[in-house]
Amino acid sequence: MPEYRRLKNKYELLWNQQSPEGYLKIVAVLQKYIDQGISVNTSYNPQHYDEEKIPLSEMLKHLVMFYKYGGKQLYYFNTYDGATDEMEPPAHPYYEQSFEQDDEDCDSCTI
Description:
Blueprint: H1 4-7, H2 21-31, E1 39-44, H3 56-68, E2 73-79, H4 93-99, H5 107-110
Helix pairs in contact: 2-3
């Protein structure tokens, strides 16, 4: 973002947004003036919802509203999971097993 330090208080960061509604309305209206379809994604932060669960009714409301305002292509409903850019496997038994596997046990290595 240009001049981030000076303008940072004028912008709302993606995962700090309470709802994607404003973004969806703007993009849907802009779509009227753009020849090709705009690929639009929504982003939800579970921390802004009761019990950190995003209600399906909320997502459907945004989906219908987007098309009602003239949007053409709504692709992904992204959810903040707190992940970082670190390349470590998640703490889950499935991943621990697959990363601890020896090369000798690998099917593609023995073919």
